[in-house]
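Need tokens for this chain, all 642 residues.
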Amino acid sequence: MSIVLEHLTKRYDGHPVVNNVSLEIKDGEFFVLLGSSGSGKTTILNLIAGLTGLDQGRILLHGRDVTHIPTQQRKVGFVFQNYALFQHMTVAENIEFGLTIHKVPKAKRQARKDELLDLVGLSGLGERMPRQLSGGQQQRVALARALAFEPDVLLLDEPLGALDAKIRHGLRRSLKGVQRKLGIASILVTHDQEEAFDLADRIGVMSFGRLLEVGTPEDLYQNPQSEFVASFLGVANLLVGKRTNGKVNIGDLEFQASTETSPQERSQRVQVLFRPEDAALAASKDELDHNVLGLATVEEVGYGGSVETLRLRLPPIPGVRSISPPVPYGSETILIDATRNPDEASRFPLHPGDQAWVGVRRIHTLAHPGLSFLIPTDGSMRTQGAISLGGQIAQQAHARVTLVGYGKDEGSLEAPLQEARKRLGGGLAAVQTLKLTDSLLPAVRKTLERQAHDVIVLSYDPNQDNFVSERILESGDHHLLLVPAPQVVPNQILAPVAAGEPGKEDILLAGRLSRHLGAEITLMTVIPDHQDQPDYRSRIERYLKRGVTTLETLEVPAKYMILTGSVEDTISKELRDGNFDLLILGAPLADRRGQISFSGLIGQILKTNTTCATLIVRSNYIGSRLSLLDEVEIAHSLQEVR
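Here are the structure tokens for all 642 residues:
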């Protein structure tokens, strides 16, 4: 193997930006790391090149451990997005620079320079200055310079990102040709899927510092293993259906499952993927030779050169929920993306407002991701309420549980963990136990580095646990269930929401959890007295009605109410008088440094709520710290609720 990465981890301010990444790249392979901005792709290149220090793990290049070797001794060629050429040097001098530093004889330097100029298609341009070249030509110089001293591996950090489409396409061809001719193992980082599909022998998809899946472009596109990869690579139609005894059902439609199942398998929810090219369109139902989804209305038609793109709207299908494309908030309909070649489009022309029958040629099924809970315990009495409630909810939701013993030596943790497992009870999808001698916060962070979790369940005392709770909420893309006292599985849930995007996230998570519990959700918005105007109240009511529709689509009973007065006092009063046993609140939005604070309204509510568990839903939106009251005011002044 040319490149071997073993459990690479890199943290900034305690947060892993590269999280336990392991990867092997073969000799001569062109490997592409694909992911959105901030997913950790470039950091991995910097770790391999030695430009950034490693916290954990090991790096081997052609069998040589280079983890602690200086950059200049690693024999790594690096091509940057911004070319990084020396503007005061000619093209030839830029290419020869590394060779000059290593005292390579002049004749050999010039021969290597001429060879590389010819290889990258710049023969005769050696005496020009970088400013006299186009962007594509400058990037060719950067590539030649990276190859000058015959590196063992080549690293390319979005080298085509600053170029226009035509130049980028041409340079892709040249880059792949050079790589194939030299047979050098290469890693290219990009967020451009077309670029990744065009260049890669294999692709690794990254998100939040984790390497999610690795495979050939065709395999990842046709047979992804996770919802993220399915919807990240290309355009995906992703629906939730059911699988029973080797058959997959989308409403009344029945398909053969794409994965083997046992004859005794109980009915389970699955995600059903079909790509736009797998959708068949016809003027009548009888013309379709494939399973028929229904009669759709054309929403949009686009021209993509070799294909026509369409977005269609289907009426609700009982028992089916759409994941991608996402439907508008509060809508029960299902959106479908389809593509057709010019011949198909000319034989059956379609325009916005027309109707067409939609069939499906091929599907791929993915296991529907169940929830995963992380429950820490130090063996004390105060953690028992969190263990009991977390275990009961996990049973109802068929969730996986990681039970973490912390704060003692491993021998002393054995008995508390055994007791905690008994308290969890049976019927869980899976239970994993870990023993960590760290205090609570580092123990949780270490566990999250090993595996992401959806919900962390904590025993909670507002007088002493706010700091740790805030830091844990900041530590990843998860939510926090705070349990102040032992209680039963929730049956009545109160979800105060403010009109806006974060509020939609609160409602969706509440629905996902409540569907398993059989609990009823009450959506509530509190309007301060000075803002209680008819038009504003009308917009809030429309928002809440759509929230109820969204929950009912998830088969969750729901209702809403609009109250006026002090936000804190009204929520506290409803908790006391309304027989609620779970409160769901949106987390204060993280500031631009990623920090979260309970110092505002949420902290006040948590302080007065001493009996009811509270689920804090973490938002992906980044902004200044906002309380629920702040969000209401901003929604009133800035956001039109459609």
